[in-house]
Design a protein that fits this description.
Chain A is mainly beta and 318 residues long. Chain A is 10% helix and 41% strand. Chain A has 2 domains: 8-113 and 276-290, Sandwich (Immunoglobulin-like), CATH 2.60.40; 118-246 and 292-317. Chain A is globular and about 60 Å long. Helix content of chain B is 7%, strand content 56%. Classes of the chains: A mainly beta (318), B mainly beta (781).
Amino acid sequence: MPDNKAKVVVEGYIQPNYPIVIQLTSSKGYFDEITENELMDVFLSDVTDIKVIRNSDKEVKNLVFNEIFRVYSEFDINSPLLFDSTFAQFGESYSLEIIYNGDTITANTNIPYIETPAEQVIDSVWFVEDELYPGFGDFYFSYNDPDTMGNNIMLESKRVYHYNLDSEKNIPDWKFVKAQWGAVRNDFEGFNGLKHFETYFDRGIDGVSGATSEGKRREEFGNFNMSSIDSIGNTIPADTVLIRLSMIDEASFNFWRDTEYQEQTNGNPFAEPINLSHNINGGFGIWEGKGSIYIKVIAQEDTSFTIRHNPEIFEALF
Amino acid sequence: MKKYFSILSAVLISLSSFAQEKYTISGYVQDKSSGENLIGVSIYEKQSLKGTTTNTYGFYSITLPKGDYTLVYSFIGLKEEQVKLHLNKNIKKNIKLKSESILTQEVNVSAERKKNIESTNVSQIKLDVQKVKQMPALMGEVDILKTIQLLPGVQSGGEGSSGFYVRGGGPDQNLILLDGATVYNASHLFGFFSVFNADAIKDINLIKGGMPAQFGGRLASVLDITMKEGNNQKFGGEGGIGIISSRLTLEGPIIKGKSSFIVSGRRTYADILAKPFLSESARNNGYYFYDLTAKANYTLSDKDRFYLSGYFGNDIVNFSAPSGNFGIEIPWGNSTASARWNHLFNDKLFLNTSVIFSDYSFEMGATQQQFEFKLSSKVEDWNTKLDFTYLPNQRHNIRFGGQYIYHNFMPASISGSSGDVDFSPETVFKQYSNEAALYFADDFELTDDLKVNFGGRYTAFTHAGEITFKQMLINEFKLDTDNQYRNFEPRISARYKLDYTSSIKGSYSKNYQYIHLASIGGMSMPTDLWLPSSEKLKPTEGVQYTLGYFKNLNNNMFETSVEAYYKDMKNLIEYKEGALPEDNANGRQDDALTLGDGNSYGVELFFKKALGKTTGWVGYTHSYTNRIFPEINNGEQFSAKYDRRHDLSVVVNHDLSKRWTASAVFVYATGSAITIPTERYIIDGNIYTQFSGKNEFRMEPYHRADVSFNYTKNPDKKYHSTWNFSVYNVYNRKNPYFIYLDIEDTTTDGSGGLETGGLQAKAYQTSLFPILPSISWNFKF
C-alpha cells in the first residue's frame, strides 16, 4: 500500500468587509490509524510563514495563528474589529502563500461581484412546514440569476437562535452549514439568466447529535424548528436563521461539487471514485473568495426576511 | 495520379486475362460422414501449389488455363483427396472428405498448413472445436470464449470471466457473431460462462487486426462463430452431464443429403437439485440459465441453399424473502435468428443474403410490500446483408456487398408503483438508429511473392434520439444532420513471401464504431447499457497498424509468428468521475459519460503445433494500453483497467493412447490496474479521501494452471462416451478478484470507534476460485 508524505490541507476564505480566515490541517495516510482525537491531531498551529497578497497592487497581509478559533487570520482576538476592512474587495484576485517544513504551498482565488442591489438577486424567501414531520420545515427562496455566464453560487445557513431542548437554552450554530445535496449551483446547470429561479433550501445535517422531542430527532433530521410548546407548556421560540448566498469562483464551485459527489460515491463499489478538484498547489483543500448576501429569517410560515448587508463579524465569519 | 493509374491498369489486366483460354472448377466441399459443408478447406493445383480455400458455406472456385491438372483438397482431420482433371470446359466438382488417422495427417496436410504463410490474413486465428473440448474447463463447462482468452493479444476479463479484451479495446469493441447475428452479451452467470454451447459450433475465427472490409461496426476484433448445419446423412446426437449443467444435441437429415437440422440445449440445475433441501419459503429462490440453439438447412438446387438458425438463452435470478414482503426477479438474455440464402449466379459469382434479428434484454423487478420497482434495458437489431464473392481468376478473390441495421435501444427505463400510485414514465425512453455500410475488397496476388488485400467500407449512421418511431421517420425526411455520421474506412493488408517457409505481413485498417457500451465501475455486468452515437456521443474511431513475421518450421509442423501492432483510438467513452449507477436511468446516460482517446501497442509471439500426438501453443503478449480523457484523472494519461504488461498462455494437448488424452493450461498475466485511496483529510468537519491516479496501482499478478484428462470408451464405435476429469487452479493460487477496504478495530478490547480512536483502514484481497476439481460425462451416438 502507498506511503504518502503528509500534505498541508487549506480551508480558507476571503470576503469583503471581513477578516481573512484560514484553517490549516495535515493530511494522513489513508491506511494510518484513526486516532482518538483525529480532528485535533491534524490541526497545524506552528505555521509561521503564511501570507495573502492582493495581486493588483501586491499588498501583503501576514496572518497569525489564533489559539481560540484555531485559525490563521489577521485579526487580534482581543480586538476583533481591528483589521483592514479595505483589503478584501469585490473583483480582486488574491494569492495565498504558505511555507511549511520546507514546502511552499500556493493558491489563487478571486472575489466575484454580486449584483446590486441584493434585493434584486433574492426575490423572496418563504418557509414551508414539512408534511411528514410537523413542527419542522424548510426554506424556499427565489433567486434571480444574472444573464451573464460563469455565475457560481453557494448556499449555507446558520441558526443564530436555536433553542436546545436538552440544555433548555439558546445554543446557536457556531458555523455555517452547507445546504445538503446541491449547496453549489452554476450556470452550466441550465439556469443562466433565469428569473425567479426557485430552489429548496434544506439546512443540511451538521453532524451534531441533537435534542429529542416527542421522539423526533430534530438535529439529525436537519430541518429548521418551528415554534412549539414543550411538555410543561412553555413556548419554544422558532429558529432564527442566517442564510448566506455567496458568489464563488469556478474552482470553488468544482471543489464543493466534488465533495458532494464523493459523499455520494463513498463505499459504493459500482461508482467511479472521485478526487476533490482543489486549487491548492502543493497541498489539498480550497482557498476561496466569496461575495456574500446575508438574509435573516425566522422559521415560520408567512415569515418576512431582511437582507443583512453587514452582519456582525463573528456571526458572518464562521 | 500516375501511380493510381498503374495499379488500376494492373487490376483490370489481371481481371480480364484474355491471353489464354481459361476454365473454372467450382463446387462445395463436405465432410463425408456428416455432410457438413467445410470452411477453409485448401484446394490447390499440385504442380504450382496455387490454390484457394472454401468460404463460410464450403464453396470454392478455381480458374485455370486449359490443360491437365491434379487438384488437392486438404483439411486438418480429414483425408486428403486428389482429383485428376482434363480441363477443357467449366467443371462442377463437389468433394466429400473422409476422416483419417492422426499419423497420416502429419504427412498429408503439410501443404494445407502453409495457409499461415500464404494468406494475406494477419492477426487471425482459427480454433479447432474438438481441441477446445479436450481442454480443462472450469466446473467442467467447455467454454469457447475462455479458450479465446488464451490466444496472444487477447486478455481475460478477470478470474473465471468469459469476457475478453483484444489489443487494448474494450469489451464492446468485439463484434461477436453467431451465424452472422450480433450477440450483445455473450455470457451467462454474470460472466463466468459463455453463451456458446460447443456441441453446436463448427468453426471459430478470431480477427484481431487487419479487419476485412466485410466486417465493421467494432474497433477491436471480430469473433465469427459458425454453427454446425446438422448431419444430412444420418441421425445422431451428443450430450453431456456436468456438475452444474447438462446438455443435449440432436441432429439428422430432414431429407437425406438435401436437408438437415440440429437442435442443441443446455440448462443448469443447481436450483432444481437444491430445491428438496430448502425450506418451503425458499423453494422459489434460485439461479439458473439455459440456452437453446437450432439450425436447419435445405439445398434447393445446385445453385441455391437456404439456412435458418437461431439462439435463445436466458439467465434468471429469483429471490423471495421468507416473510413474503420482499421479492426480486432478474432475467436477462439474448435471442438471435438468422435466415440466409446462398445463390450461385455462375461458377465465379456467389451471393449470400441474410436477414438477421438480434435482441439483448435485461430486467430487474423488485417488490417490497406495496412498493414495486422495475428496471429494463434492451437493444434490438434488424439486420440485412448482401455478401457477394466474385472469383474471376486465380489472382483475385473479390468480395463486395452491403449491410443495413435498424437498431432499437431502450437504455435503463425505470418504473415503479406504491399501492395505487403509479410512477411509470409516460413514454418509455427509446432511441432508434440506422446503420448502413457498403464494402469492397479484393484479395489480389500481384506477383508470386506479393499478395495484397485492399478495399474499404463506407459507413453511415443516423441517430434519431429520444423520440417515437413516427417522430424518427419525420426527422429522417427532414434530413436533420445533427446526429448523422458518414465515414470511409480504408482496409489494406499485404503478404510478402520471403521464401517457401516464411513471409512478412502488414496491415492498416480504420474502423468506426457507432454503438457503445457504458460500464460503470470498470466491471462488465448484465446491467451495462448499449447506447447509440448521438450529438454528444461521437462515433469511436480506431486506426490499427500491424506488422508480422510468419515462419513455419519442420515441414510446416510448427507455426510461429511475431506480430507488432499500434492502435490509436478516438472518442472512447467512460463514466465521469463520481458517476453513480443510477446516473444511467431514464435518458440521462449521455450527461454521465465523457469522451476521450486511447492507444495500445505491443508485440505478440505465437508458437503453435497443430499436428501429431502432442499439440498446443505458447502465446506471449507484451503490451501497453493507455487512455487520455480531459475530464478524468486531471486530463493526464492513465492505464486502461485491462492494461497488461505481460500475458502468457501455454496450452498442451497430448494423446496418451487411443482412449486417453491429457491437456494442460498455464496462464500468467500482470495484475489488473486499479485505483486505490491513498490519503484522507478533513474539510468543513468531514473526512474526504484522496485517491491515487486512475488505475495507478496493480493487483497481484494472475497465474494459474489447469489440467484435464479425457477417457473415451469404445472410441471406434458409433456410440461412445467420454469422461472428462478437470482440475482448475491445480496449485490453488489465490488470485486477486477484487480489493475491498474495511475499517478494522485495532484495540485489544474491541473498544475502537470514531470517537475513541483505535480504528484503521485496511485493504483486503478477495479470491474467487480455489482448486476446483470437476467431472463430466459426455456421450455421442
